[in-house]
């Protein structure tokens, strides 16, 4: 005897398979006024603030973090151990490639800009105005400065 599945049951099963069910405690919604800023991790030069919106940048796995940089802020040439996936939320991020911080080679990345680098790609950055970035990638996240003397953790010891 051949078994058939009624079309209505097949349609419901298909809709259920492709329609995610989100439980009330299985989501997070944050408006700009809800963001809680704290001093950025000490791996960044002093003056930056950060807010982790999702996940944990220090652990393996997906995370979303915002970083607020004041006007006149600089990050010396460095690399990251994971893909660097960044959206400029506000301000204007000045981004340059390479192991030397040559500001004449930096590109303006105004609000709405996006960039992505593979792990180990040296780059540097600075700001002329307050700028907010959103990093959306997999952890653990960190920086390795091309010149170890640029690491702000070395300057506090």
Automatic annotation (TrEMBL):
Pfam families: DUF4437 (PF14499). CDD domains: cupin_DRT102. It comes from the Bacteria. Keywords: Signal. Residues 1-23 form the signal peptide. This is Cupin 2 conserved barrel domain protein. It comes from Methylobacterium nodulans (strain LMG 21967 / CNCM I-2342 / ORS 2060).
